[in-house]
Amino acid sequence: MVTSIVSLVVLACILYLIINHSVESPKHKTVGVYFNTTAPEIARTDDDYICATLDWWPSDKCDYGSCSWGEASLLNLDLNNTILSNAVKAFSPLKIRMGGTLQDKLIYQTNYQQTCNPFVKNISQLLSFSEGCLPMARWDDLNKFFTDTGAVVTFGLNALTGRTIHPDGSAEGAWDPSNAESLLRYTVNKRYTIYGWELGNELSGNGIGARVTAQQYASDVQTLQHLIEKVYVGSETKPILLGPGGFFDAAWFAEFIGKTTKSLQAITHHVYNLGAGDDNGLVGRILDPSLLNREASVFRNIQQDIRNSGTSAAAWVGEAGGAFNSGRNHVTNAFVMSFCALLWHRLMGKQVLSTTVSGTSNLRAYTHCSKQSQGITLLLINLEAEVTFRVNISTETGSILAQSSGSFARKSKFEKMPIIMNTREEYHLTAPGRDLSSKKVLLNGRVLSVDSSGSIPLLKPAIVHLNDPITVAPFSAAFVHIPSIVSHACK
Questions:
Q1: Is 181 one of the annotated active-site residues of the chain?
Q2: Which of 55, 67, 169, 345 is buried deepest, with most CB atoms within 10 A?
Q3: Is residue 202 among the annotated active site residues?
């Protein structure tokens, strides 16, 4: 009898411990996201942060068994494509950079008597292609498209004209601006609006195909600055000047920025931190948080160079494609690359708030003031294959969404809020079956696709009560708009 009573007591104790100290499922994990609502913004983006590059590659540009460019070049893109037009219009406006690798082999047919030939593959020549040409009729069509869609455009000029390129890639001589001047004059005479002109593509540091010293490049930028001032004299609006549009090299950039303090309005650099598209481990690199963190040092160094120089220029990422050399089929054109630019554009404001994640390195969290309210919007990205994260948000005043007995309890300061302040909006992006190579994206469980008329689908949020937990599924991203959390930086 005594033994039975003891057994019952032990069993009761065990049950008590289970009930009061339940262990989370190994496939669910609670993590913390913290930010200080009284702190100032840590950074500020441009009002129209999202941008895209249109390149010059012809259809026979092939890499690793795939000819990915097809009819996507500035020279052959179907400008009457309804889906393309609607996609650009959806951003209102989208910044479009016209440029890329072959821009330094492109001439402009401003003299109609000159021959205008397309790019032709030739592995014996620089960048494995012949010189190409932009007909002014195509320039007219491009500018009509940009005007009709409300795009904001920058153009990358050929920076190698007039130079001698040695076998080791070093470029000798100063830039010859004569062909560029003819394009600028044609553009001004036609009253086309170009937001900015940029000189050269990836010629900084060791360069891609060719390289120009920082001192010479700075001198060439000043030449372009004087050219713009001359050509645009009397114009109502004047374009900004960008550069150098290359990969970061500490010594080169420091010298270049120091010598262009009065010339440039934007310091542009390129980001391809995943490496080459032929890497079989590319997906693993995309999901590696330590690799994602590494690029931060480049941004810090550029900002320090800007501060040291005294220039008023802003730092821009001029081009970012993840994996260079046309990416990798079924990876950089698939869900794993997290195509969420339109949601970012609509939800994330320009003020960036300091955000800290505790409990894991596999949840990425980015917080901005919201474009929708005086509240905040978080972007949460789950890099885990199997684990669902329950997110506990806290500020300097304590937990906002605090877990309690399997649910999230609201602090008393929110109890008397209007209905809209007692809810939040969530946009969960997933792939069918968690297939990272999928070409489909689900928003809150529904496939996003254009309709028969080419219209961009509506991006509807799930309305969630503030008490309910924020959960981020494996291999997914979630935008969470919380109007009730008001940061000092957002007022």
A1: no
A2: 55
A3: yes
